[in-house]
Amino acid sequence: MKKNTMIQTLPLAGALLLSTAAVQAEDVEVLHWWTSGGEAAALNVLKDDLGTKGVGWQDMPVAGGGGGNAMTVLRARVTSGNPPTAVQMLGFDIQDWAAEDVVANLNSVAEAEGWNEVVPTALQRFAKYDDKWVSAPVNVHSTNWIWANKKLLDEVGAKQPENWDELISVLDKLKAAGYIPLAHGGQAWQDATIFDGVVLTTGGIDFYRKAMVDLDPEALSSDTMLKVFDRMTQLRGYVDKNFPGRDWNLASAMVIENKAGMQIMGDWAKGEFLKAGLKPNEDFLCFRMPGTQGMVTFNSDQFVMFDVGESKAQDEMAKAIMAPTFQSAFNVVKGSVPARTDVSNADFDACGKKGMADLAEANKNDTLVGSMAHGHAAPAAVKNAVYDVVTNHFNGGMDSQQATKALVSAVQDAI
User: Fold this and answer.
1) pTM score above 0.85
2) What is the SS3 assignment for 81?
3) Tens-digit pLDDT string for the chain (415 aa)
4) Where are the alpha helices (DSSP H) in 222-349?
5) C-alpha distance from residue 187 to each of 126, 182, 388 (Å)
């Protein structure tokens, strides 16, 4: 991002500029996009925790999964010289904003609290800029999950699929029984979330790194990538006709309400199932995209602290986010796993325990990779270029051969 870039701001941005011009010194003003039921419930854990420390919360929610709208609002606030205290952010966006020299230096808090020793290196790569802590990681999400309605799978005589062919067999059984096999929302980031998992299961961890992280032209143009797009076409055949524009949590609701059998989505979806009163392994199943067990594509929600001058409330927020008790309490509700390695799994449900074990295994075996769909594999320009091709293909705008060729060109143009 360029310091002097001129952008069109949303009408919402102007309203927020007026409504949040003055925030009391003992408050934190927090810009985020956690607006679904499960997400809001998780965020309340942080609000309540800060309240016990005498820190007030000025809420600044901007709806839109992935944070695109939030970043537009943020640009307007920073340009006006009135940044929020803290902003929810992902991956390379953190690095882009840090490069603009508008974020706070959290090193004194990080050193006092020992963050260097407990935060996984993969997360520090985004939380630091020029060896300066600029954000506090809230969690580690992983994106190569499937969420399935156990009742429907039992009804059609299907078991948890272990490979691609078994996945297609389960989807066929659900379709034959009159259910929507795959709940999905037709938004670019959701299409790309499925794409992440298909790339990983089709080519394995080394191929994923070459294609999505290294952006190797040979990998991007390979027969393996062609097969990835063919498989995306297969999955498109199991999605209902009303999917365009549907929010992810509404797709989760389709599985919860016995309308659809499965959803391919990051582990934030679990919060929706829990909020509905459902229990893992009894009412719903959580498992890795078939063929990707032992591999984890991740993203990490972090709160970037902006330069608002000396702020005890901001320091308290950073400390509160990284406290082991909060990391446990928040992630139990959110569906993610802690952003530090020394948190007990005692309070986590079966899916949470599996997520923590999978993350530890992937971290140990070097099979932990950033999610392209969620801004942790490549910079935003590349991510958006991939979005365009994947969504165009998923909506029938091009065939697999055309998509493979377009992907190579789009990525090269974005680099």
Assistant:
1) no
2) coil
3) 433 433 344 444 444 444 443 444 489 999 999 888 877 888 888 999 899 989 999 999 998 766 778 889 999 999 999 999 999 998 999 999 999 999 999 999 999 999 999 998 888 999 999 999 999 999 999 999 999 999 999 999 999 999 999 999 999 999 999 999 999 999 999 999 999 999 999 999 999 999 999 999 999 999 999 999 999 999 999 999 999 999 999 999 999 999 999 999 999 899 899 989 999 999 999 999 999 999 999 999 999 999 998 899 999 999 999 999 999 998 988 889 999 989 999 999 999 999 999 988 888 898 999 999 998 999 989 999 999 999 999 999 999 999 999 999 999 999 9
4) 223-236, 248-256, 269-275, 312-322, 324-334
5) 25, 15, 11
Give the Cα separation of 172 and 347 in Å (integer): 37
Q: State the residue for tokens 């939380």.
A: 127
User: If we measure between CA atoms, which residue out of 165, 30, 164, 1 comes closest to residue 93?
Assistant: 1
Alpha helix positions (H), 121-187: 121-127, 150-155, 164-176
Cα gap 64→90, rounded to integer Å: 14
**3-class DSSP state of 342:** coil
CA-angle at 189, arms to 287 and 138, nearest 5°: 65
